[in-house]
Amino acid sequence: MKLEQGRRIRFLRVAAGLSIRDLARAVGTTPGAVSHWETGRFVPRRDRQIAIARAIGVPWVDIFGLQGEFADPPTWFAQSGNRLQASGYDDAILQAGG
């Protein structure tokens, strides 16, 4: 599970045009911590998970709430500049923690 979530973080971070350093800065942590999350060594705390989702621009559930094999993000992702926009979702999902 940890590695699957890490792969999602990395895939979506890169798709959003963010470097490890950019994501670390946005979340309030170190690039080393982001690297540990992406490799599955550690799982971020819930407050960090919410911050990661906000920084990347996707719903929390799409990174941390799904199980099963890692797959490409759902087709409702549409690239807009360097940010990913998820239609049909709002901040209430993130604030509720998924």
How would a crystallographer describe the biggest sheet? 2 strands, antiparallel
Mean pLDDT: 76
User: First CA to last CA: what distance?
Assistant: 17 Å
Structural class, from helix and strand content?
mainly alpha
Overall radius of gyration: 12 Å
Strand percent estimate: 5-15%
The rough form would be described as globular
Count the strands? 2
Strand neighbour order, sheet with most strands: 1-2
| Share of helix, binned | 40-55%
* SSE order: HHHHHEEH
- Provide a count of the helices: 6
Outline the low-pLDDT stretches. Answer: 68-98
Verbal overview:
It is globular and about 25 Å long. It has a two-stranded antiparallel ribbon with strand order 1-2. It has helices spanning 2-15, 20-27, 31-38, 46-56, 61-64, 91-95; strands spanning 77-80, 83-86. The protein is built from six helices and two strands; from the N terminus they run H-H-H-H-H-E-E-H. It has 98 residues and is mainly alpha-helical. Helix 2 (20-27) packs across helix 3.
Features:
single chain; 98 residues; mainly alpha; two-stranded antiparallel ribbon; 6 helices; 2 strands; globular; disordered C terminus
List strands and helices in order, with pairings:
Layout: H1 2-15, H2 20-27, H3 31-38, H4 46-56, H5 61-64, E1 77-80, E2 83-86, H6 91-95
Antiparallel strand pairs: 1-2
Outline:
The chain is mostly helical and 98 residues long. It is globular.
